[in-house]
Amino acid sequence: MGPSQLPFSRHEYSRRLRKTRAAMDEAGIEALFVTDPSNMAWLTGYDGWSFYVPQGVLVLPDQDPVWWGRAMDGNGALRTVWMESDRVTVYAEEYVQSTVRHPMQDLAAKLADWELGSARIGVEMDNYYYSAKGHAALTGSLPNATITDATGLVNWQRGVKSDEEIAFMRKAARISEKIVDGLLDRIEPGVPKHEVVADALRDAIRGTGDAWGDYPAIMPMLPSGIDASAPHLTWDGRPFASGEATFFEIAGCYRRYHAPLCRTLFLGTPPDDMLRAEAAQIEGLEAGLDAARPGNLAGDVARAVKDALARAGIDKRGRVGYPIGLSYPPDWGERTVSLREEDETVLEPGMTFHFMPGLWMDDWGLEITESILIRDSGPAETLCNRPRRMFVKP
Amino acid sequence: MGPSQLPFSRHEYSRRLRKTRAAMDEAGIEALFVTDPSNMAWLTGYDGWSFYVPQGVLVLPDQDPVWWGRAMDGNGALRTVWMESDRVTVYAEEYVQSTVRHPMQDLAAKLADWELGSARIGVEMDNYYYSAKGHAALTGSLPNATITDATGLVNWQRGVKSDEEIAFMRKAARISEKIVDGLLDRIEPGVPKHEVVADALRDAIRGTGDAWGDYPAIMPMLPSGIDASAPHLTWDGRPFASGEATFFEIAGCYRRYHAPLCRTLFLGTPPDDMLRAEAAQIEGLEAGLDAARPGNLAGDVARAVKDALARAGIDKRGRVGYPIGLSYPPDWGERTVSLREEDETVLEPGMTFHFMPGLWMDDWGLEITESILIRDSGPAETLCNRPRRMFVKP
């Protein structure tokens, strides 16, 4: 049993491993235990909805990575990773959600077997699905190892995308456009929200052309009216109403790569304060796209946006974007750079961000956003191509 | 701004809080910090896709719970929780995915302000989204507190469902039936898998009758042929093929309550070993349903299934089910009881399980499962009503 269809070339996986090993070397880490499902997939191709139990990939300086997980998921690893079958190892089913055993005890025993019991081992202490108890079980079972925090070490290697990755994100962008087109078309006063979401998810998974749709790492968020003062509400069965704005925060996803796109639709006649905010948000987006050039800082983009909003009297709090690419639930961000004033990361060609200067006010919300690619020179490219404005239906 | 439509009565939330406080008292915990989004929603009604950043609910013995989360999500809390607005408190946006600050430092400062700096505080060390680094930041910032592991404390209170909860699960079960009916109808040789999944998700969200569909905590898993030897693969764009079985593991979801249902469809003529396994799995399900009576043990159900499978020469590894109810990604299980031989939990009326004796063999998989309710007496009730067999299309 081997992998059935790896998303990327072996060359691409080699590139990723090389970058990660260099970062491990710089951090003085002899073995890196990667639990973030996005990092696992980026390094090995592993793909499955098994991240609700402990699992991980062990990266070593001079041997192929080892996939470690639940017995039941070993076949899934054999079907999806590029490594040979002897690099897939599992823990027994009786460890799963047990009140008396912890899977990390199995991992610790295996690490000791592999003569890593006294090694300097990096773990992703603040990445998803690495629990406080798992960490305690691992450190408690490996008293002679030096277990150090390597949060984000792999995530930082993912920032600059390869051509293969950018091609995936362009496919995701076509799907995002299709989802937004459908939402703009179908939202009408009186139509129940869940029916529109049902069609949006259908559009997302049907995809476009040769791009079948994968599940997005975040479900559609599309609050209306006063609910839109809260960015992260999903949906219910109530109908859309006249006199309310709805923003939709969605992403097309192709083989786990995302291209988020948000637009806002007002049913009726928008109030003046929303129209002023719309104009300021668009001006901020344009200023930010112009600032998103190689050599500039992440903070420069944030400053460009906030200055434009400030001229309209809007005090924008919080960051205005984050890196995107390969992701699993619960987040489609990469959790490294933030487009916020204090962030001094230098922008490089091939970096991709969800540029997202959302406004959530006391009784409405406005989201007009773009997925962007830092080019070799000049302003950023937007991966999607849809009018950058608030839409209005009378 | 108050909650727009609480899913449950105030009486129901009082019941939940009372049970949780009694368990805290028994565990000697003065304050319980709950981060599992399922537990947060069960206790307070909070509902939003914000669990990708640190957040939680603080349960206290003699005051209403406190919702704590990101500044941007405060409005979402005000829109969804039953507590008064002064019980919603937030941390500033600059803590979000920062490389220099951790949100748990904000929580620690607030706990100290609330005179809990020397208290005995329970945390969910092995529940979702409570990271090792968050735990280290909290314990490091509260040197005089006694921080103890309260993993699953709330989850265990959720096991026996109220009538209000069972009514929600019955609605979810109607949605599950609709999804399975659609899959059985639409899967044909040559049809691309993602197109069928797109329609299944549309069915899931459109719901049935007065039940709008919520997103399931796990996306559809429906591997075919040899891929079905791996239980947790999702989908891709390849067509269904004759001579292969596909199992589908799905759940309808109504207001976060799930009723998983799995069936298997063979395109063509099933081989004898699958037919034998099907007969044994059905016999195991029937024996297990009969054993799933109040007063029996969780392990009794597992033994009934394994005995039936053993008679057919099948050595079933792993548990055969887990409790279900309210859930958020990445899991629709409650992570307390396991239907495995060593589990001595006594079954009680009102408990609900996904009874799931799946078989994943070397080159195929077979899933025929039921969501079940432990009755006041007699065998368990199945929440869904669909033929309990492998389906075959010539």
UniProtKB/TrEMBL annotation, chains A, B:
InterPro entries: Creatin/AminoP/Spt16_N (IPR029149), Creatinase/aminopeptidase-like (IPR036005), Creatinase_N (IPR000587), Pept_M24 (IPR000994), Peptidase_M24B (IPR050659). It comes from Halovulum dunhuangense. Residues 16-159 form the Creatinase N-terminal domain. Residues 168-375 form the Peptidase M24 domain. It comes from the Bacteria. This is M24 family metallopeptidase.
